[in-house]
Amino acid sequence: MATISRLTTPSPAASTSTLKPRSSQSKTLIGFYSGSTFNAKVSSSKLAVRSNPAIRGPLVVRCSQGGNGGPAKRTVLHDLYEKEGQSPWYDNLYRPVTDLLPLIASGVRGVTSNPAIFQKAISSSNAYNDQFRELVQSGKDIEAAYWELVVKDIQDACKLFESIYDETDGGDGYVSVEVSPRLADDTQGTVEAAKWLHKVVNRPNVYIKIPATAACVPSIKEVISLGISVNVTLIFSLSRYEAVMDAYLDGLEASGLSDLSRVTSVASFFVSRVDTLIDKRLEKIGTPEALDLRGKAAVAQAALAYQLYQKKFSGPRWEALVKKGAKKQRVLWASTSVKNPAYADTLYVAPLIGPDSVSTMPDQALQAFIDHGTVSRTIDSKVSEAEGVYSALEKLGIDWNDVGSQLELEGVDSFKKSFESLLDTLQEKANSLKLVSL
User: Fold this and answer.
1) Of 42, 126, 209, 227, which sees the most CB atoms within 10 A?
2) 238-254 and 297-312 helices cross at what angle (nearest 10)?
3) Residues 209, 296, 327, 328: which is the catalytic one?
4) What are 129-185's pLDDT values in tens digits?
5) pTM
6) Domain map (residue ranges) of the chain
């Protein structure tokens, strides 16, 4: 079981001394517009992003003017990284991937994808039709064609973030692609899928996403030991998170590599879904004490996860790996969009800012934080309060491991359904073109 006792926290200055803020630069805003409003807004900007059917309205970078009259690219995302050491990533991917360029200019430093994201992108866009037609005409089956579509997007996105990867010596600039969700309970199948994806994408800044299921924790160790960088996804509990960090360390130690600097990882700790489930349980309990804890569980658990992170990546064992060039498995805050409209739209971003971490944000969360987010180190500013919330929920009968298990099952099931739905959609497209038949 994970330990949640209070830990000594390094000072912000010590953690971010190499980051040099450039606060004199102007700011960029990202906004959502539609119809004529959109056309009017982008008429004077060279950084307009094309409309994406998978989201509500086009995502547009609206540039303020710098002192020389030209468009400036400064946003709060730059401050997030340079002042507090947290990397802002974008939780979405679709064609054309060049639509990412304005976001990179605004401070986005990486991209995450998952089966649900690709299901929305491919099923709602014609941008994939030409490649898909060529693939099925060449004899590819539907699932093989799907992977070809995905791999191209990932490769193209990796190219866009390559300069960030190079500038940070492999510390940032990653694009994540997930193994088939059908393999969530298949240890060796996941290892083989990760090896295959790593080989076919063939980019140094790709992260292979592996779910943190009990069956896949050993997969993480093996894949890391092979020198493949991994984004561990669907983490919902402290106990599973600790197992994931141990798998990373075990993998580094088992690799036999003398230089570990190119084997990196992030651990994607999911946030908003925790509140969604626990809030329902609190409402069922119905007492004033229970109702008062709504909307507090997810951030509290995340704060305690960060304490575990700091503890795990310190001490003699970690220092021995650092001597070989090892990099921390950064904690990544995922599921940062707000599901309950009654909550602040930056609830799962603003309180989770801390050094050596990542926050991946879908459109809504990204827009909200750029528009009115505040940059300051918050992740360990209220640890005692987080411990109190965590314990109070336990006293009310909330079983944290049970919550984690249920959310993991729901997450895996959701990705499986998205995956199967997309394959069905592609089959229908193929049938409509009379290219293939089952």
Assistant:
1) 209
2) 30
3) 209
4) 999 999 999 999 999 999 999 999 999 999 999 999 999 999 999 999 999 999 999
5) 0.84
6) 27-74, 80-432
